[in-house]
Specification:
The protein is mainly alpha-helical. The chain has helices at residues 3-13, 19-22, 38-47, 63-69, 80-94, 108-121, 128-136, 149-162, 168-198; strands at 27-32, 102-107, 139-143. The protein has one domain (3-198): Rossmann fold (3-Layer(aba) Sandwich), CATH 3.40.50.
C-alpha cells in the first residue's frame, strides 16, 4: 500500500501520461458518500505533493460552519454573497497548497446545499458544472463508490455507533506513506545535487 502514493506522484508529475492535466484542469472533485475510502484517497493524493490538499472544505451544510472552519469572523461582511465569496476564496487558497491543483471532496448529503450557494453567487451560469468551473477553475470529477453496498452500510452504522470514523490502520498508512514519500523526495534531491556536481 505504501507504494501507491509514489505511483500517484509519478502519474501527476509525468503530465504526458495524465490526459486530464494536459486538458487544462485546475481542480478535481471527489464525488462520494461515507465509508468509501475517500479519506484514505485524500491522504494519498495529498502525500504526492503535486495534487493539492483535497478535503471536505464545505462538509456541513451551514454557512456559519464554513465561516468558522475558514476563520472568517461572524458579521464581518455586509451580506451573504460577500461572505460566500470570502469562504470560497479562503478554501481555494488553502486547497492547492502551492501545487496549482485544487482538490475537493463532496458527499451526496451536502451537495444540494453547496450547489445552492454557488447558484446564489453565479446565477448567470446555466449548470452546476459551469458554476464549479467558474469557482475553482476547470474541474475533473472523480466518482468514488464501494462495490459492496451492504459492507458500506454496516461500516457506516458502526462508525455512527462508535464515533470512530477513521481507523488506526488509516493513520498508520498515512504516516508510513508520508515517511516513504519524504525518503523518495530526499533521494531525488540528492541525485539531482550529485548530477549537478558531476556536470
Amino acid at each position: 500500500m505504501t507504494k501507491i502514493p509514489e505511483q500517484l506522484r509519478i502519474a501527476f508529475i509525468q503530465r504526458k501520461q495524465v490526459p486530464h492535466l494536459q486538458m487544462g484542469y485546475k481542480s478535481y472533485i471527489i464525488c462520494t458518500s461515507p465509508r468509501n475510502g475517500s479519506t484514505l484517497l485524500c491522504q494519498l493524493l495529498t502525500n504526492t505533493n503535486v495534487a493539492g490538499v483535497p478535503d471536505s472544505y464545505f462538509h456541513k451544510p451551514s454557512l456559519n460552519n464554513w465561516m468558522e472552519v475558514h476563520g472568517i469572523a461572524p458579521n464581518s461582511l455586509d451580506n451573504r454573497s460577500e461572505t460566500l465569496e470570502a469562504v470560497l476564496k479562503k478554501a481555494h487558497k488553502t486547497g492547492p497548497a502551492e501545487t496549482g491543483m485544487f482538490g475537493l471532496r463532496l458527499q451526496g448529503g451536502r451537495l444540494n446545499y453547496f450547489m445552492d450557494q454557488l447558484k446564489l453567487l453565479h446565477s448567470e451560469q446555466n449548470s452546476d458544472v459551469e458554476r464549479l468551473n467558474t469557482t475553482f477553475g476547470k474541474a475533473a470529477f472523480i466518482f468514488l463508490s464501494r462495490k459492496n453496498k451492504l459492507e458500506q452500510a454496516i461500516s457506516c452504522v458502526k462508525a455512527m455507533q462508535t464515533g470512530l470514523w477513521h481507523t488506526a490502520l488509516a493513520l498508520i498508512l498515512q504516516n508510513s506513506s508520508r515517511r516513504s514519500l519524504n525518503h523518495v523526495n530526499q533521494s531525488a534531491r540528492n541525485a539531482r545535487s550529485s548530477n549537478i556536481k558531476h556536470d
